[in-house]
Amino acid sequence: MQDEGLGSKGLVRRQILVTTGALAAGAALAHFGGFLNSAEATGGSTEKWPWPYEKLDPAKTAEIAYNEWYRVFCGAAVINSVFSQLREKVGEPYKSFPSDAFVFLEGGQVGWGTVCGSPAGANIVANLIIGPRIAGAHEGHQIAVDMMQWYSETALPVYSPKEPKQATKIITTTSDSPLCHLSVGKWMKASGYALASPERKDRCARVAASSAYQVVSMLNDWKDGKYVAKSDFSCGKEFGITGQYNCNDCHGDKVPTAPQLPVVAATPAKS
Prior knowledge:
By secondary structure, the protein is mostly helical. It has two domains: 1-41; 50-234, no CATH class. The protein contains eight helices and no strands.
């Protein structure tokens, strides 16, 4: 059979794909450029950190996140639950921020089961408000670290919605990991409900709500100047490799062993 990539049809197909990709990229850049211009025109530059923050009601935020999950899933739901309120309280740059664009965080990033979108969305919120570690905003980094630990060690979901979309009792499970496939997988095994079941969907909506409640509680404490770090997770320093809370759930005895930097003996000072 002729290789499609070498035939005339293959060349035409490739040209179409290239042209389509260029058009899509141009449209995306135009949209993003409009987003930046809109924010800057109203006095709220998206290029400057930190962004202004006003304290929010954690329970109200959780309710917004719960309902938003059914529209844009976990990560975008958490971001929207915070930023939709700050659009009203603060204005720009929140009004121009495309929160729905983070729908890709669903399912551990487009269904790949990596980091759960709920803590990922919370970490995006914290870093935009407080700033990244590279800018010296260690509290923003620490809240992200604490969110990962909280998510890993807490029996989720914590939050119960005022008007649940499922009447079935939703049990709680502890993931011991920030990974979506472990968090959801352990819950499915314990509950007996499948991935596509309404119960599993409602469970994840409640996890997003729980995460939104948690990150706003942390940000409120930070705003009041009384935030206290809760985690000292340092896998990189201890083992020389990035990691998460329970590698053995996936790797078993095949956890990668990282090379360590050689210990250099101190040179005696010359007399």
